[in-house]
């Protein structure tokens, strides 16, 4: 295992993103369609927040098993904006940050994804799943 491998070698470059003017129904659709758990919120190419699927589930009644589930979710989603639900104080890394450094950040913090930002531009995202896949390939 190389000690100085940059995160750029394993990060996701094809970024699914939201803007603060998008709605939470769109966010849920993107989470489900892309089978992801974290979406950066951007203004142009600059990151302004992060939305996780867990954040979305905290405000919804997604676990409702009634026949009115979609109606209930729509009502709840319309009560909040992306900007109200997203995390605003986002920790980021650069594409030359080492995988070891990213692992330490994610192992000691209470989140599971880091936006990768170079020169104020979002260039990727690295998740705990990316790290697990990387370490699995090493053995």
From TrEMBL:
InterPro entries: CBS_dom, CBS_dom_sf, Diverse_CBS-Domain. It comes from the Bacteria. Keywords: CBS domain. Residues 11-66, 86-139 form the CBS domain. It holds the Pfam family CBS. Signal peptide: none annotated. PANTHER family: CBS DOMAIN-CONTAINING PROTEIN (PTHR43080:SF2), CBS DOMAIN-CONTAINING PROTEIN CBSX3, MITOCHONDRIAL (PTHR43080). This is Membrane protein. It comes from Algibacter mikhailovii.
């Amino acid at each position: 295992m190389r000690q100085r491998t940059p995160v750029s070698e394993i990060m996701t470059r094809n970024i699914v993103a939201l803007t603060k003017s998008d709605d939470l129904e769109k966010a849920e659709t993107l989470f489900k369609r892309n089978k992801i758990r974290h979406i950066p919120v951007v203004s142009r190419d600059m990151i302004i927040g992060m939305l996780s699927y867990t954040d979305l589930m905290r405000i919804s009644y997604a676990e409702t098993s009634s026949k009115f589930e979609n109606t209930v979710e729509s009502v709840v989603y319309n009560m909040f904006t992306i900007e109200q639900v997203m995390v605003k104080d986002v920790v980021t890394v650069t594409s030359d940050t080492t995988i070891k450094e990213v692992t330490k950040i994610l192992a000691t913090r209470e989140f599971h994804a880091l936006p990768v930002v170079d020169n104020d531009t979002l260039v990727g995202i690295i998740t705990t799943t990316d790290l697990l896949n990387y370490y699995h390939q090493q053995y």
